[in-house]
Write a structure and sequence with these properties.
Blueprint: H1 11-21, H2 30-41, H3 47-72, H4 75-106, H5 117-126, H6 129-139, H7 148-157, H8 160-170
Keywords: Membrane, Transmembrane, Transmembrane helix
Length: about 170
């Protein structure tokens, strides 16, 4: 006996299923609508740049306190400020990994924001070089500009992580 073929769903049903698949689950939340309205009202808003500025101030404060602890020779405070400094560097590395991963997999689109190559370079220069390099190699990131890898290597050499290492171990 021949088996009967299963009925194919019509194109309208397929299209409807596809549209339902990509519905944003947060679209009805007030935070989402406020964020969307903020982005619509100020198209030049750069939240990643603001976040990087804040993290620069935080990590600069931690490095300053670490250098003061090393200079004064207090072992307990050296450990505490080293923990804060390198802990912040670990968090920045995780964030850099996430930025490169999203840029590689979804062309930098995370729904309401777009990740640019400058954002990746900015967080790599903050001390996210290990996370960024791991994601570039793991996800085979293909940049839009040809000079990205030159800039990427430059910010890998000149970043705040190496300042922390120098202050902690060679000051």
């Amino acid at each position: 006996m021949a088996k009967a073929k299963a009925l194919k769903p019509n194109k309208a049903a397929k299209q409807k299923a596809k549209e339902q698949q990509f519905i944003n689950p947060f679209a009805s939340s007030s935070l989402y609508t406020q964020t969307q309205r903020f982005i619509d009202e100020s198209p030049d808003a750069k939240p990643f740049q603001d976040m990087a500025t804040f993290l620069t101030l935080v990590i600069a404060f931690f490095i300053w306190r670490l250098s003061a602890a090393v200079t004064s020779g207090r072992e307990a405070s050296i450990g505490v400020w080293s923990l804060f400094s390198f802990g912040t560097a670990v968090l920045i590395n995780i964030w850099s990994f996430f930025l490169v991963m999203v840029s590689a997999k979804r062309n930098g689109d995370i729904g309401i924001l777009k990740i640019s190559e400058e954002d990746i370079l900015r967080f790599t220069s903050l001390s996210g070089l290990f996370g960024a390099w791991a994601a570039v190699l793991l996800f085979q990131y293909k940049p839009k500009s040809s000079s990205f890898y030159i800039k990427f290597a430059g910010v890998s050499v000149l970043n705040l992580f190496w300042v922390m290492v120098y202050v902690r171990y060679y000051w």
